[in-house]
Fold this sequence. Notes:
Elements: E1 2-7, E2 14-19, E3 25-28, H1 31-37, E4 42-48, E5 52-55, E6 59-64, E7 70-75, E8 82-87, E9 93-97, E10 109-113, H2 137-143
Parallel strand pairs: 3-10
Antiparallel strand pairs: 1-2, 2-5, 3-4, 4-9, 6-7, 7-8, 8-9
One zinc ion is lined by residues 8-10, 12-13, 76, 78-79, 81.
Amino acid sequence: MKKLKGGCRCGQLRYEVEADKLPKTYACHCLDCQTWSGSAFSQNALVKTNAFAATGETARFELAGRSGFVSYQSACPKCFTRVFNTNSARPGLVGIRAGTFDESNKLELVAHIWTNRCQRGLRLDPETPCWQEGAPAEVLFSLLDLPMPS
Ligand SMILES: [Zn+2]
Ligand SMILES: [Zn+2]
């Protein structure tokens, strides 16, 4: 097992993931993700909670979604980088903002969702599966090589 590392912009909040290789990632081009990231899309990885450990202080923001599930966003209280999150809809998994991995240049993108909000001028790889809105969870999880959360 390797220890994959990452963290916030200032280095105060760091994490390690025990895994054989970097997790696969997907991009979400929805308005919420654009607003939240201040960028064209969010890039996300999901890892098992028991393989994930963070050190440093976190500021936690709680957001109830339309579906009734609650998401908990953890950010660095010093530099305000949003680093990881959990969601009551997928217990046992941590979502990592993929750009926070130290080796983010080696990440693989396996899906694009909400491409109906994709910013003009951004060309997506035609080989990568795309959905105009959300992808069916079982399809997305299988592309990410993860079992469906129970
Ligand atoms: Zn920081
Ligand atoms: Zn989104």
